[in-house]
Amino acid sequence: MSYKIKSRIWIESEDNVLLGEGRVHLLKAIDETGSLSKAAKSLNISYKKAWQLLDSVNKSAKKPVTINSIGGKGGGGAQLTKYGKSLIKAFDEINKNCWAFLDEQLSKIEHL
Amino acid sequence: MSYKIKSRIWIESEDNVLLGEGRVHLLKAIDETGSLSKAAKSLNISYKKAWQLLDSVNKSAKKPVTINSIGGKGGGGAQLTKYGKSLIKAFDEINKNCWAFLDEQLSKIEHL
DNA sequence: TTTCGTTATATCCAATCAAATATAACGAAT
DNA sequence: ATTCGTTATATTTGATTGGATATAACGAAA
């Protein structure tokens, strides 16, 4: 049984985490459900945690990543901005490339 | 001010963490000081944490990474094995390559 | 103006994690 | 035998984290 190489990448802004794997999952769930509370339920995390993550994302980003509305039809909701979608796309691509890169590096430890 | 990409890589064996950045730092300090307690002090971590890390490393590795001795001249000590040194070398190289790789990926977010 | 489901926030409690402390076991040297 | 500094381990305390709960604010629609 050989060793495996694992990795985590994330994007920072002024030493604050902007996007990591968990945050991207949350943003994708918001995009699918249209609300933060439904996204939290779909990910089986508490609303509190989801809200804290989203708040941190929007505070770290240069431009809004979601538009959140309170009240009104359906009680309100959250929507990804175009900017948010482009951030997710960039993260996913870099992350995928990183995995592929590390796969190539496996040869450096297969003899150990 | 632009975003930054950060990363962490680690090597796993049977779903146990074998080597990460912290563990590599500890092993290098052991190599320099010849003892686990001195290594812990030099890294400003508790002996307990250092011991737990080293124990986990040696339990996850296929072959011993350190040889630990109790009692005797100087009270005992810990020494890196050749195998441990080769693991560190491989980790460092892969990690360095990963940083360089992610530097190249920066162009994918510099417009965001 | 009442209803509704949501965002936003505070509070409390449990659980997990880290630090600090204490102590035994060890073996070469004296 | 005693000393010494180390490895190895348990215990306790404190800090941080996360979950659960409660509640206010909101605004469109009925």
UniProtKB/TrEMBL annotation, chains A, B:
InterPro entries: Molybdate_resp_trans_reg, WH-like_DNA-bd_sf, WH_DNA-bd_sf. Signal peptide: none annotated. This is Winged helix-turn-helix domain-containing protein. It comes from Hyunsoonleella aestuarii.
